[in-house]
Amino acid sequence: MPESDDDDDDNMSSVLHRRTEMSWQACGKYLSSAGLLFLPLLIFSQLLKHSVMVSIDYWLALWTSDAISSETGKNCSFCQESKFSHSSYSKIFSILCCVGIMLCLVTSIAVEWTGLKVAKMLHCSLLNKIILAPMRFFETTPLGSILNRFSADCNTIDQHIPATLECLSRSTLLCLSALAVISYVTPMSVIALVPLAIICYFIQKYFRVASRDLQQLDDSTQLPLLSHFSETVEGLTTIRAFRYESRFKQKLLEYTDSNNIASLFLTAANRWLEVRMEYIGACVVLIAAVTSITSAQSNKLSSGLVGLGLTYALMVSNYLNWMVRNLADMELQLGAVKRLNALIKTEAENYEGLLSPAQIPQNWPDQGEIQIQNLSVRYDSTLKPVLKHVSAHISPGQKIGICGRTGSGKSSFSLAFFRMVDAFEGRIIIDGIDIAKLPLQTLRSRLSIILQDPILFSGTIRFNLDPENKCTDSTLWEALEIAQLKLVVKALPGGLDAIVTEGGENFSQGQRQLFCLARAFVRKTSILIMDEATASIDMATVSSGMQMFLMHNGFIKQNYLVIIEILLSVSLYI
Q: Which residue ranges traverse the bilayer (predicted)?
């Protein structure tokens, strides 16, 4: 099959095949994020806690054996001449119980604290990378994928991984403790336990792959079901109008059946594992019982140790079952760490620049002279250039109109001034400074651009005109008057403090464009780029408003780069 076909193949089998390996790198990333202090504390507290728990059971077995020996007249380590004393045993037993309770508390705190530290570190790293990511990242990465990383995956790291990690470590150490006690009580049982351990290894390896894939399949079949249900509720009126109730009901049943099949197979897989772990546990009990009774009959074991070994043997199947299931859950949940780690590795933009703040004039650019030397621009290193070898010289105060058809590179040219595209060849010099050497914050704060698609943020009108709160109210009202929005804003409750909804949806498209023009007036930078800035405004408003806007004292000495498709409209700007 050709390589391109392999890359485009997105069927379920190929997806499941890529999930069959353990995410050891993600596991290492999660554990290393805990730091040098918390990880050793977590491991040491877990080991010490289970050691004390085994010591409690062992001491109770020893207590029982000595008590029985005292009843039968045999020697015991804490017997008195006439009567067996329980006080020494009870004191040590109480001390061990108190230590065990304290260690359980310390272990729980260590697990939760470690989970909190790791979740916080990963979230902050992801947030910093996303904020500093280049614009190309947002163009090529679906918004839903980014939201899922911050919602579902962060929730998995916050809530599920610490609990699963604690359960996995507890079940694993309990299983190892049980096998260690059985081996200590009856050393000959080790020979018989080795084949069972090999069988258990292959069973868990087989189960983990199937369980991980079935859980992923369960999640993937649940999403269409929930989406279809919500879409049906939202469009219920339209569905009834076209009498498509039966069709949507049938589709809902199909999605439900698909999800139920995945859930049933997942439940069946868990039962499959449980049955086989019970078989192995029964074999362990049989081996422990035979070897213990044989040793007890030859007076090599006390009755207390025999009971201790059998008690632990009875719990082996339960420990094995939960250990394997928790391991499968952990593998699936570590996928969230893997996905976050992939985004954290995103290469950030060069925000620092080569020039320090002391090397940049405070009022740069004050003249607005622009030199473009052999500029070539592309959106990504893997794509072809959209502009090749562009050279130009724009004098201070000069007004330039750029005309061209759709896709000719006009917007790409404007984005090059803000370093939002890859200028892999040539340079742009503004007032004697190469913009490639400037910090991004400085560059983008000293230039202004008005885009074809107006952008407003949720907040107030004052915030959208002056986010840094540097201008007086009179300046803001003057900007609104120039943009012919003064009467509109005065009619709103609150005036400049009137609420702007997300994206400015409470204003029309044309009004949002005029707000962007007013914002450009407030900034009063020496270079203003207008990328089809009046595409959403009627010609009457453009004819009267733009002349007032551009002929204002604050704009006469500015450089304008006007980008437009219709040649007749250039006269309105220049």
A: 30-48, 92-111, 178-203, 279-298, 304-324
